[in-house]
Specification:
cytoplasm, two-stranded antiparallel sheet, cell division, elongated, 2 domains, 5 strands, alpha+beta, ScpB_csome_segregation, cell cycle, WH_DNA-bd_sf, Arc Repressor Mutant, subunit A
Length: 188
């Protein structure tokens, strides 16, 4: 095996967090990092661990069909409240978004604790301030959000047809969701 590819493999394997191509190059040295990553991804495809890219960061993960084997050793994750789930969805689909915009979409105020839970989980971060009166904080999702939900990018979020097919929208929610999408499109 090519020494550079081995160096790339070692850098990704030893890291405790996903790495960008630039991070990997800093460890592995001069060479075609993207080509080495493609080679390794092909080599590991179908194995117990796979090399994957999530949010322009690379890491090894357990093959999805084997994840159930390790569930006993992982710590139990807390279940998100409905408010936190709705808030996370709004941020993911509308980012960057302010607290007032989240509340306008949800139709109710959110407690500061809701955003704190999402930030503690590492799925949401502050993303600057809006150039508007009061300069409100903006919120966006993180690379950890993409990794946790198995998304390559935000473009991989399910669309309205996917949500309907999964039975996750009732007729009232569907019309509200469609109205929100249309409203967002007019603002662009």
């Amino acid at each position: 095996m090519d020494e550079f590819i081995r160096a790339v493999e070692a850098a990704v394997f030893a890291s405790d967090e996903p790495l960008t191509v630039e991070d990997i190059a800093a460890y592995a040295g001069e060479g075609d990092v993207p080509a080495a990553l493609r080679t390794l991804a092909e080599r590991y495809a179908g194995h117990g661990v796979e090399l994957v890219e999530r949010g322009e960061r690379w890491h090894f993960q357990t093959a999805p069909d084997l994840a159930h084997i390790l569930r006993r050793t992982r710590e139990d994750s807390r279940r998100l409240s409905r408010a936190a789930t709705e808030t996370l969805a709004i941020i993911a689909y509308h980012e960057p978004v302010s607290r007032a915009e989240i509340e306008a979409i949800r139709g109710v105020q959110i407690s500061k604790g809701t955003l704190d839970v999402l930030m503690e989980a590492g799925w949401v971060k502050t993303a600057g301030r809006r150039e508007a009166p009061g300069r409100p904080l903006l919120y966006a999702t993180t690379p950890d959000f993409l990794t946790h939900f198995g998304l390559g990018s935000r473009r991989d979020l399910p669309g309205i047809d996917d949500l309907k097919a999964a039975g996750l929208l009732d007729p009232l929610e569907e019309s509200l969701f469609q109205l929100q999408l249309e409203t967002d499109g007019e603002e662009d």
